[in-house]
Amino acid sequence: MDYYIRYVDMPSVTKGMTIEDSDGFFNIYINASLSAAEQEEAIKHEIRHLERKDFDTEKSLQEAETL
Question: pTM of the predicted model, to two decimals?
Fold first, then answer.
């Protein structure tokens, strides 16, 4: 699985999100305003989605967020 981690400004309620691009790469967006520890946890959370192949299933967002 190929992915890029990008640090961007986001609303404070959003820690991170992952989006698959048209080339099949996953872009993990992490809130740049989080502390280093919070960013690390957000990255781990997003990578777990990739490891569980949440993007290859028809899970709802609520089901995918139940880690």
Answer: 0.83
